Amino acid sequence: MDxxxxxxxxxxxxxxxxxxxxxxxxxxxxxGGKPEAELHPLSVIVEEFNTRYGDLEWCDRDRVQRLxxxxxxxxxxxxxxxxxxxxxxxxxxARIEHAEALRQVFADLIEDDAILFREFHGNxxxxxxxxxxxxxxxxxxxx
Length: 143
Fold this sequence. Notes:
This protein is mostly helical. 69% of the residues lie in helices and 0% in strands.
């Protein structure tokens, strides 16, 4: 009886080998990878900024808008620790490094624009809004 069972198991094993296995293609939809970044047109950012903070007496409104939409995001992208956190870390580490990089950028801007600096450090709502926008503009992750 034992030899009969071994023979049947061997036949069953061979029958599996004779079948041509098929591998289903990987579905194109579904998870995996990072989501596409949710990019907002510059006009939306400027409009929201003007709605929230347009009543401030800026010395040079165009310069402030250029700082917020071009200069600060560029400086953030050049910040090494923030760039490393974006490339190799998770969202929490990226946000921590982003906040530190943004503080450093604003420390460098003290002489460039005292009003913007004062708003950033004296108005928590402005600081939160700016941190959120700058993170979205510079992380390209869609968090």
